[in-house]
């Protein structure tokens, strides 16, 4: 199920509040890490950001954690929240406006514990629903209980698993459930209208058909904090027409997160993620259809005369139906004058930017007719295969007043292109991590990318607080010298990379004593006569098709080297490596989609052995050490690609953390 927000095993610490002056002594021994947040190419407004806390000492029995922003020598305490799942992350809000091209500096420290305070983003359980509040004001209610229908209405319309009400900051109810014209409309909800499962067509949207419904199995996580509150719930899409009785056809996990992004509470920011997986060994196909998926039914007062709609492409209620949009602003009358929701879709979503379904002017006789729907299957089928997770991510900015197109673009860019956070850690003994980039090539092909990869990793080290040495001399492999390094990075090594057996023995002892190893691209072609090395790296190079564009599917969205990548990573002009002697212990993080690879010899290898995918990136633990490998990165210019560099940085961080 979904790991996008990693809500199943969260542990949170609440830290400070906005605008509070730092009172902790400013000593180096008190600083755990420093963070530099780069706005990049986009202006920022009250942007949620996070930092990877890998390798940072977080012991809190005698101390609390405190985040401060440092500006011209002055310190300001900032509310933050620690999330612990696959790894520790620290979340906070880059409050106010941060112009494009600028950067801001923060420090994480220990401080003396203070009296516990009430969480600013809180949950209230009514027994039927969970209300999420910011500073005591209602934001939304998630209904897990089965909601009864009005008197005289067919009980087939009854269901749970939806959001209603969604309130504006001034308290206006923006959603509606069970309207007389469509009793199956439930505020904000996410069923599928036209699906095919085990040879049957199942409609999970139009409940009156009796073909399918959606039930809440459990609420698996509830989190409160100063920066955000979140819930995670498991929904089941039930096939009611199965031969042996009703069965679950599709599992879906909802992750809802409400951010404390605005100190004045003039807007709400809500993240919604749906992660789906087949419940049986049978695939489920979401068929092409005009509307289904993430939907919104507005309150009764909104109609053709009173409500307006604007998309990122400039379309409105009269001509927006069936068009594609990155965002869509929907607003109507309220006690505050005007209130609305800016709906945003994420680039990782299937068929991005999705087509939208709206009720155009004149629909429903022009009355009570504001409906909006992001629909990834409006113009094509979407086949969900067993054993895989499929995620859809959306963000809602809820407001009173007006939002112009430029502001909408700023908020969408925050979602789609979040700021980069560089981390510098300070261990208790102040010793920085040090890595060795090793690039020796034996007789055979030598990649011209080597100096570019060295320069890129040195830049990563400078920006992220670890020291980098580089060498192509196998003489560096002595026990005394190699013990200085926290990780060895074999960047585009190839063929025989050691000159003597003693050098091989030094490398082996390093791994067996807990040493970390990172392999990049042709490192898999190193030491081709040494089976133990194949096991360390995870496999042995066999061959590759001609260099080309191809797709890589991200299989683990929790790992620091992949969690920021889209579900499908479009690789440009690289080599799709095939390997043999794969270590069965590797944990595959990403795999090439062989349906996108042109290869005249595919039937020879990998053939039917690997089907439609082949591993490109993995991590594992072998013989005492920790190892991470990526097959990507053939050309010099690849080492200027921000995604590949962040991918490699995540692998280095993982190796250093697990060491």
Structural features, described:
This protein is globular. With 659 residues, it is mainly β. The longest helix is centred in the C-terminal third of the chain and has 17 residues, at 642-658. The chain folds into 3 domains: 18-116, Immunoglobulin-like (Sandwich); 191-400; 432-658, 3-Layer(aba) Sandwich (Rossmann fold), CATH 3.40.50. The strands form 8 sheets. It has a 9-stranded mixed β-sheet. The relative contact order is 0.10. Mean pLDDT is 90; it is low at 1-29. It starts with 13 loop residues before the first strand and ends with a helix. The chain is built from 6 helices and 41 strands. Helix content is 10%, strand content 40%. Pfam families: DUF6807, ThuA. Residues 1-19 form the signal peptide. Residues 434-655 form the ThuA-like domain. Keywords: Signal. InterPro entries: Class_I_gatase-like, DUF6807, ThuA-like.
Strand line-up in the sheet with most strands: 32-31-33-34-41-40-39-36-37
CATH architecture of the largest domain: 3-Layer(aba) Sandwich
Determine the fraction of residues in helical runs and give it as a percent range: 10-25%
CATH class of the largest domain: Alpha Beta
Rg over CA atoms, rounded to whole Å, is 26 Å
Amino-to-carboxy terminus distance: 28 Å
Domain module count: 3
Given helix and strand content, the structural type is: mainly beta
Give the overall form.
globular
The helix tally amounts to 6
Q: What is the fold-level CATH name, i.e. the topology of the largest domain?
A: Rossmann fold
- Total strands: the figure is 41
Q: Can you tell me the residue ranges where pLDDT is under 50 for at least 5 consecutive residues?
A: 1-29
Q: State which percent range the strand residues make up.
A: 35-45%
Sheet of most strands: 9 strands, mixed
């Amino acid at each position: 199920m979904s790991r996008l927000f990693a809500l199943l095993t969260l542990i949170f610490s609440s830290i400070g509040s906005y605008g509070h002056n730092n009172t902790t002594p400013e000593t180096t021994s008190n600083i755990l890490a420093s963070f530099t947040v780069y706005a990049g190419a986009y202006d920022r407004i009250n942007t949620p950001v996070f930092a990877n806390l890998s390798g940072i000492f977080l012991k809190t029995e005698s101390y609390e954690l405190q985040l401060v922003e440092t500006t011209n020598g002055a310190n300001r305490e900032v509310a933050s929240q620690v999330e612990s799942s696959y790894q520790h992350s620290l979340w906070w809000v880059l409050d106010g406006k941060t112009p494009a091209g600028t950067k801001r500096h923060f420090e994480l420290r220990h401080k003396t514990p203070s009296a516990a305070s009430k969480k600013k983003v809180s949950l209230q359980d009514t027994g039927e629903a969970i209300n999420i509040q910011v500073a005591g004001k209602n934001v939304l209610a998630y209904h897990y209980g089965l909601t009864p229908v009005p008197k005289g209405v067919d009980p087939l319309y009854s269901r749970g698993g939806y959001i209603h009400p969604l309130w504006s900051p001034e308290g206006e109810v923006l959603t509606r459930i069970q309207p007389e014209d469509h009793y199956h409309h439930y505020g904000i909800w996410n069923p599928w209208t036209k699906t095919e499962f085990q040879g049957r067509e199942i409609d999970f949207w139009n409940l009156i058909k009796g073909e399918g419904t959606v039930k809440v199995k459990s609420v698996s996580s509830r989190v409160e904090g100063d920066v955000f509150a979140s819930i995670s719930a498991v929904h089941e899409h039930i096939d009611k027409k199965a031969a042996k009785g009703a069965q679950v056809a599709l599992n879906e996990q909802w992750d809802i997160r409400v951010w404390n992004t605005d100190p004045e509470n003039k807007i709400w920011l809500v993240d919604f993620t749906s992660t789906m997986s087949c419940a049986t060994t049978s695939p489920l196909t979401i068929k092409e259809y005009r509307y289904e998926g993430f939907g919104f039914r507005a309150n009764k007062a909104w109609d053709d005369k009173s409500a307006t709609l604007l998309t990122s492409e400039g379309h409105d209620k009269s001509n927006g139906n069936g068009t594609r949009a990155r965002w869509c602003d929907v607003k109507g009358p309220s006690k505050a004058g005007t209130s609305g929701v800016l709906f945003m879709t994420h680039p990782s979503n299937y068929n991005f930017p999705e087509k939208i379904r709206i009720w155009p002017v004149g629909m429903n006789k022009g009355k009570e007719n504001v409906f909006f729907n992001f629909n990834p299957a409006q113009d094509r089928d979407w086949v969900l295969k067993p054993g895989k997770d499929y995620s859809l991510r959306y963000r809602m900015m809820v407001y009173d007043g007006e939002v112009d197109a430029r502001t909408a673009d700023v908020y969408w860019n925050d979602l789609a292109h979040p700021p980069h956070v560089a981390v510098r850690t300070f261990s208790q003994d102040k010793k920085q991590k040090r890595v060795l980039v090793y690039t020796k090539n034996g007789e055979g092909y030598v990649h011209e990318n080597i100096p570019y990869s060295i320069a890129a990793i040195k830049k990563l080290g400078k920006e992220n607080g670890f020291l980098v040495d580089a060498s192509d001399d196998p003489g560096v492999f002595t026990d005394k010298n190699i013990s200085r390094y926290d990780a060895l990075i074999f960047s585009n090594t190839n063929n025989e990379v050691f000159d003597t057996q003693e050098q091989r023995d030094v490398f082996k002892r390093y791994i067996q004593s807990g040493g970390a190893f990172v392999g990049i691209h042709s490192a898999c072609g190193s030491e081709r006569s040494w089976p133990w090395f194949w096991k360390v790296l995870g496999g042995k190079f066999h061959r590759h098709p001609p260099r080309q564009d191809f797709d890589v599917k991200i299989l683990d969205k929790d790992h620091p080297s992949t969690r920021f990548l889209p579900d499908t990573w479009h690789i440009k002009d690289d080599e799709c490596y095939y390997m043999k002697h794969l270590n069965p212990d590797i944990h595959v993080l990403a795999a090439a989609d062989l349906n996108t690879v042109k290869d005249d010899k595919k039937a020879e290898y990998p053939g039917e052995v690997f089907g439609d995918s082949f591993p490109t990136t993995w991590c594992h633990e072998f013989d005492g050490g920790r190892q991470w490998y990526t097959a990507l990165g053939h050309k010099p210019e690849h080492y200027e690609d921000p995604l590949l560099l962040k991918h490699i940085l995540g692998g280095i961080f993982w190796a250093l953390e697990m060491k």
